[in-house]
Specification:
The chain has helices at 35-42, 48-70, 72-101, 116-129, 143-149, 167-179, 227-236; strands at residues 109-111, 133-137, 157-162, 185-187, 194-198, 201-205, 217-221, 239-240. It has 241 residues and is α+β, with helices and mostly antiparallel strands.
Length: 241
């Protein structure tokens, strides 16, 4: 005689979320079923009410799947928008961090005759933005250039390369260096233009620093230039005063 298989159906609920027992809005623990769980449950429960409820739940899952399939492009676009928003938030955070650190620096500009203070402010802000070194290549310098370079942060080195240094400027340098951090001055006769090196950035300056705003000129950031190469050439072709 063949053995009979006895299937025991537990009367316990399939899912009992104990952490909800203390909630006051309901005296019953919630139960949750997956779509496959409902199908399996309907195979063992045969009452009309159970069959009806199981059918409705399965219909709900089917409707949800159809909804997701029909609106898949919308969900993809929403996901793309969410990604872009996160990316933009990251960029805004970087901008705000820079603003808080006050490290945003001017890059370049064109100045017309009479814009003396605007040009002076741009160069001073560039000098203040330096963190390691400042190198000025300018054939015509005077004590006002020393004053501007003294606006640099503590610990930042400053060096001047100029075509010549007269007796008065040598006296100015000596008196300056006796009170403030020294600014070495070197004689360099091979440059026609003016350049300002701030850390690793090279700026072309269309006018001597002492004559800012007297005529039209421009300050341009030369992004492709290697500051270290320029400084190496300067040191090889210059002499001390």
């Amino acid at each position: 005689m063949a053995k009979k298989e006895i299937i025991v159906i537990s009367q316990e609920p399939l899912a009992n979320c104990d952490r909800f027992e203390t909630l006051k809005h309901s005296s019953f623990c919630p139960y949750a079923f997956t779509e496959h769980g409902v199908v399996m449950l309907s195979a063992v429960l045969h009452s009309e009410e159970a069959i009806d409820i199981s059918g409705r739940i399965v219909d709900a899952f089917v409707a949800m799947r159809r909804f997701l399939a029909a609106n898949a492009p919308i969900f993809q676009r929403l996901e793309h928008i969410e990604y872009k928003l996160l990316e933009n938030d990251h960029k805004f955070d970087q901008v705000f961090a820079k603003l808080e650190e006050k490290t945003l620096e001017p890059q370049q500009g064109i100045f017309f005759a009479g814009q003396v203070f605007d040009a002076y402010e741009l160069i001073c802000n560039l000098i203040k933005s330096a963190t390691t070194r400042i190198v000025l290549i300018d054939n015509y310098v005077d004590y006002t250039v020393l004053t501007m370079l003294d606006k640099r942060e503590p610990g930042v080195e400053a060096t001047i390369y100029t075509q010549k240094a007269g007796d008065q400027f040598k006296l100015d340098i000596a008196k300056h260096d006796a009170q403030y951090p020294p600014i070495p001055v070197w004689i360099f006769k091979m440059s026609h233009d003016r350049f300002l090196i701030i850390d690793d950035r090279v700026y072309h300056v269309g006018a001597s620093i002492k004559d800012l705003g007297k005529k039209w000129f421009a300050v341009s950031l030369m992004e492709a230039q290697d500051a270290n190469v320029i400084i190496t050439r300067l040191q090889a072709d210059s002499s001390s005063i």
